[in-house]
# Entry
Amino acid sequence: MKKLNIISGIKQYRSEVDTNFHMPGHKGKNGILDEIGNNLNFYDITETLGTDNLHYPTGFLKDAMEYIAESYGSKKSYMVVNGTSCGIISAIMACTNPGDKILVQRDCHKSVYNACILGDLKLFYLYPEFNKKHGLNFSISLEKLEQMLIDNPDIKMVVLTYPTFYGICFDVKKAAEIVHKYGKILMIDEAHGSHLHFCKDLLPPSAESSGADIVTQSTHKTLPCMTQGSIMHILSDRVDLNNVETMLRMLQTTSPSYILMASIENAVHWMNENGEERLKRNIEVFKRRTLELRNMGINVLEDDFLIGEGCFDFDATRAVISMSELGITGTELQEILRYEYKIQMEFADLMYTVGYITATDEPEDIDRLFDAVKEIYLDRSQSNEKREIVQIEAFPQLQHERKMRKAFYSENMLVDMDDSIGKTAAEFIIPYPPGIPLVCPGEIIVPETIEYVKVMLENGINVNGVDKNNQLRVVK
# Structure
C-alpha cells in the first residue's frame, strides 16, 4: 500500500501550480511562517505547567488575545482554532435560546444554518438583490432589513455576511444603526474581510469599526495564517462574554494547536508591520491591470464600475473575472488558468472565476494572472464558436415545510432529483465552494432549484448533498 498519501498529494499539487490566488493567505510563501514552519515539533506543545490554556487563559495566550483585541479595537477578541464555522456557531448560540428567532442573510455560510439546527432556532431570511445583468447577488436592501425588523419584533439577532465571497459590500454602518434602532444584536460574518482593517484608505470599512456587536473572521483566508486559524471579536456590551466563552469551551477542541494559535498571533503582528504598505501596493497594481483589461472588453469586476451599477462597495483585493461573453464558463476559465498557466484560483461558478489577492502576493504574481487572462481572451475571441452563458438566480424564495432542526432529524430517504420536487429537503444542497446552501433542511424543493443544480453539475461544479447517482435526501 502506498504510504504518505497526503504528503505525496501535496507535493504533486505544488509541482503543478506556480502561482495561487486561493486561501490560505500566506500563499505558501517563504519568510512569513518560517519561525513556526521550520520548527513545528518545537512549537507543538500542550496545556501544562508553564504554558497556558485557551479555555481559561492567564498567561501568554491571554496576552496574545489582548494584543489582537488592541490591534482591531475590540472589547475582547478570541482565537478560534476550529475555524470560523466554530466561531459563528458559538456566537449565535451565545446570543440566543432554543426557540428564538433570528434574521439571516440568505446567502450566508452553511455554519449559520448549522447553528440554527444545534440551537433549535427559527429562521427569517433577508434575500440579496440579484443583478441579472451581471449574474451576481449585489448588496442586501437595508429598507428590507428594517421592514423585516418592524414586521417581526421578536427577532433576537441579525446575522449578515460582509464582504460576500465575491467581494460585494453593503453599507455596514447603516445596517448597524438599523439593527440597534430596534434593540437587536448584529453579528457580521467577516470571514473574507480580516484584512479590511489594515488598509482603511483603499478598502471598504471593516465591520469591527462600523458598529457590529460580534465579528467573526477567517484569519487564514486573507491574512498570512495557517488554515483553520480564526478570530472572534466582541465589540459591545450587548453581548454576554460569559455566554460566548461557555459556548467556545463547549464547541472548540480541548487540545488546541499551539502552532495554529502562534500562527494567528503572528499573522496579526505581520499585518501590523507590513499589511498597509503591501496591500496598497497590490491594490494599485490590481486596479491598473483591471482597468487595462476592462478597456479591452474583459469583464473584471472593479469598485467604481460596481458602485455605478448600484452596488454599495467592493473589496478591491478580490479578482472576479468572467469570459461568459466568449462562451467560456467560470469553471472552464479556472481550468484553463490551472492546467495551461499553472495558476490556481479560489473557486468558480457558471460565469465567474474568483481569486484572492493578499498582502503576501507580489506585483509580479498579479501581473502573471492578468497577463494570462489577457492572452486567453485574445486567443479565444478569435473563435466563432460562442455560446450564451447566463447565470441563474440561485435563491428562489423557498417555503419552510417544517423547522430546520426537525427536518434534519427526521427519517429520510434518497430520491432522484426530478422526484424530489415538491418534497421537503432532509439535508443541505450546497455548491462547494463557496459553501452557501441552495436548499436547507425543512425547505420544499422547487423546480428552479433542481434546474440550477443540473446546470452546476453539467459544468463541473461540485454540489454537496447530491450523490454520485444524482440522488438527494428528502424527509420520508
Summary: The domain at 276-380 is CATH 3.90.1150.10 (Aspartate Aminotransferase, domain 1). The chain has three domains: 34-268, 276-380, 404-475.
